């Protein structure tokens, strides 16, 4: 409606509409001038009709095409297999809470559930910038990890401690995942929000899929 109003508001003498000169002699019917034919000729050449005709002819044409994308079957199969063949999972622990934070407990429970579902092995890597000697509750934290995994039905797992190395946790996670050829990394978004793990560097360093668990 806005388009029609615009055209109806434009004067007949503007450049939007071509000038059409009316014939000097209106067509006659049976050799005589017919008032009705004169009115018809006048109506056909009226500015209103010229504007409506121009509006109809100048309307945009819509071209619709149906495109079917053929998926690359090999790529689809590879992606599907990557999410169904988890054999080795990595559980990074980056917080210092000796009894584990809420986000870490969630990550532990998710890792245990995935390990049971796929029959996968678990590697836990505890990361801290401080030396072990300066972490008085470090052993308590390890006991908490063991207890929460056992609650999820996991009794055996591999434990790595990367303490006081001076490297960023993101780089350490990527290094461990690469060295051990891991299939999946499970992290809580809490590690991102607390700035322990850099989300931008995560995609660069991690060579395998990563699950980020929302709080």
From TrEMBL:
Signal peptide: none annotated. InterPro entries: Rossmann-like_a/b/a_fold. Residues 33-47 have a biased composition (Low complexity). SUPFAM superfamilies: Adenine nucleotide alpha hydrolases-like (SSF52402). Residues 15-70 are annotated as: Disordered. This is Universal stress protein. It comes from Eucalyptus globulus (Tasmanian blue gum).
């Amino acid at each position: 409606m806005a388009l029609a109003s615009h055209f109806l508001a434009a004067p007949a003498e503007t450049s939007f509409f071509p000038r059409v000169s009316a014939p000097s002699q209106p067509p006659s019917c049976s050799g005589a001038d017919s008032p009705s034919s004169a009115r018809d000729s006048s109506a056909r050449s009226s500015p209103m009709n010229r504007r409506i005709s121009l509006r109809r002819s100048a309307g945009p044409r819509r071209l619709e095409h149906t495109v079917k994308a053929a998926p690359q079957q090999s790529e689809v199969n590879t992606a599907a297999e990557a999410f169904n063949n988890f054999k080795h999972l990595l559980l990074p622990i980056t917080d210092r809470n000796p009894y584990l934070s809420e986000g870490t407990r969630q990550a532990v429970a998710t890792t245990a559930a995935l390990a049971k579902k796929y029959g996968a092995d678990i590697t836990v890597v505890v990361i801290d910038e401080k030396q072990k000697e300066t972490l008085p509750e470090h052993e308590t934290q390890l006991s908490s990890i063991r207890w929460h995994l056992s609650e999820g039905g996991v009794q055996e797992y591999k434990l790595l401690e990367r303490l006081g190395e001076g490297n960023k946790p993101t780089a350490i996670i990527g290094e461990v995942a690469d060295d051990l050829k891991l299939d999946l990394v499970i992290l809580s978004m809490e590690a991102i929000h607390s700035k322990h793990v850099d989300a931008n560097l995560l995609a660069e360093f991690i060579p395998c899929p990563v699950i980020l668990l929302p709080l």
